[in-house]
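As the next step, I needed to go through one protein, both as residues and as discrete backbone shape codes, included below for the reader:
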Amino acid sequence: MSGAPGREGVDMVSLPRPVGEYQERALAAPPPYDAFNCSPDNMRMTVNAVPVSTALKARWPLPLGAIVQPMADESKGRQVPVVSLGSAGIIRCKRCRTYMNPFMTWTDGGRKYKCNVCHVHNDIPGGYFSHLDHEGRRCDVEQRPELAGGTVEYIAPAEYMVRPPMPPVYFFAIDVSYAAVSSGLLHSVSATVKDLSAPQMMVVAELDEPFLPLPDDLLVNAADSRGVLDALLTSLPATFASNSVVDSAMGPALQAAFHVMQHVGGKLLLFQAAVPSLGIGKVKNREVLSAYGTDRESTLRQPDDPFFKRFAAECSRVQRVHPTATTCLVLKLPVPQVSSTLL
């Protein structure tokens, strides 16, 4: 069913998953709404009921898992409550490390709590103490987001950091092959990034074992070097306007970007138009029309080069691919699949 002309219809994706059907004349009432659990947009199970015994699970053919999307609230414009416990730090169970949540039970007048996962009794820091009401609930539940809801965001103290916070690093890997130039990708990317002194170009001819020509001097501060970056993005389309090379070395570019950012972390944005055909990670022509509709079709969707799978286990990135022909995305699938990012 569609909406009225000029108006948006119902967004079926945003609707929560049904939790079951109830008969009109059922003896028991439907279960009450539970505000303590997080939204199904953030986390939901693949099924609403799980086997209660090992024997039943062996006969149960349905996949059991959880779909987790921590930033779903922000993408939908909802604010997630921020929790900062100050000197008390993040309160977690001393045995299983479960975070403080609405399902903890309180004992000893509020001085201890019982973990809802492993049932171990834990002491409460002095700064987190609160008296209990006549039902055994803390009197400050409504003032504590971590006790009143299932989705919160903690401000992590220093002991949760592997290293001090680093400034954000962005590394742009841009395809300059004939396909990228003719499709307009190079011009569009250069103009887009620019909206966000002459640069020096360095060419690395080694494609099987790429290295950094300047290991310690390839990252610059965007604010201090804005003029150089603008000049680079302005000159890129003109520099490669007459480029007729159809080959592309995507694998070596990825490896070089990883070497640049591996010590500080960052985000790699890859803009690719041509099929990778040079160096590590090159793609062979796998388009076999006779295989479609047969048992051999599944082989076209399985990568035969382990480079991308190994590389994906080392870093995380967001990639955008703009192909002008068959580019065999199945070979690049392990990169976002393993690193939980977007392709």
